[in-house]
Write a structure and sequence with these properties.
The complex is a heterodimer.
Chain A: E1 5-7, E2 10-14, E3 19-24, E4 31-37, E5 44-49, E6 55-58, E7 61-65, E8 71-76, E9 85-92, E10 101-102, E11 106-111
Parallel strand pairs in A: 2-11
Antiparallel strand pairs in A: 1-3, 3-8, 4-5, 4-9, 6-7, 7-8, 9-10, 9-11
Chain B: E1 5-7, E2 10-13, E3 19-24, E4 31-37, E5 44-50, E6 53-56, E7 65-68, E8 75-79, E9 88-95, E10 103-104, E11 108-112
Parallel strand pairs in B: 2-11
Antiparallel strand pairs in B: 1-3, 3-8, 4-5, 4-9, 5-6, 7-8, 9-10, 9-11
Classes of the chains: A mainly beta, B mainly beta.
């Protein structure tokens, strides 16, 4: 079936270091979304990427969508303790954008 | 309402029992989704409603699972003859447009003992 693979599964960084999580699919995606889930919480929408090669920024977060629309990345510059949580990518495989398929997530821990 | 509301927040049931989980989406959101999430995993798609109809139920694992949304707002996920493997957090999400981000509820933690 259609899957979205995400690496790494876990990442620990010192506060101030950068962090990147990668997402890829064997099938072209119509769009990809990113979510953050804090410990004990529920996923919260961060952003959607639609266009090939698209790059979007939110403060210290940079999101990229690959040229072939099969991969994506989230990069956090100068991590803070508030960045702790699990980051999920979620891909849509059809034009209607229904039924997002989530990756397994990357859990980020940050020590000060 | 201001957010997606799910009840109950926790449900413990015995193996073989029937359970219903309720989701009250954001007012005006026509799209409603059910996912379930096991520990350490990403949300797993179950079913998607557009209005009153199930637009995609391909994620329902077997015929013990069923969901309805009779008036296009509140939805109920029904699980018959529960099994221990059904234990998970069941998440509901809604969206005003399937091409935009989902707003998730806080989930129902189902434990089958």
């Amino acid at each position: 079936g259609q899957q979205v693979m995400q690496i790494p599964q876990y990442q620990h960084v010192q506060e101030g270091e950068d962090f990147t999580t990668y997402c890829n699919s064997s099938t072209t995606l119509s769009n990809i979304q990113w979510y953050k889930q804090r410990p004990g919480g529920h996923p919260v929408f961060l952003i959607q990427l639609v266009k090939s090669g698209e790059v979007k920024k939110q403060k210290r977060l940079t999101f990229q969508f690959g040229e072939a629309k099969k991969n994506s990345s989230l990069h956090i510059t100068a991590t803070q303790t508030t960045d702790v949580g699990t980051y999920f990518c979620a891909g849509s495989f059809n034009q209607a954008g229904t039924a997002l398929i989530f990756g397994k997530g990357t859990t980020l821990s940050v020590s000060s | 309402g201001a957010g997606v509301s799910q009840t109950p927040s926790n449900k413990v049931t015995e193996k073989g029992k029937y359970v219903e989980l309720r989701c009250d989406p954001i007012s005006g959101h026509t799209a409603l989704y059910w996912y379930r999430q096991s520990l350490g995993q990403g949300p797993e798609f179950l079913i998607y409603f557009q209005g009153t109809g199930a637009a995609d139920d391909s994620g329902l694992p077997n015929d013990r699972f069923f969901a309805v949304r009779p008036e296009g707002s509140v939805s109920t996920l029904k699980i018959q003859r529960t099994e221990r493997g059904d234990s998970a957090v069941y998440l509901c999400a809604s969206s005003f447009d399937p091409n935009y981000g989902y707003t998730f509820g806080s989930g129902t933690r189902l434990t089958v003992v």
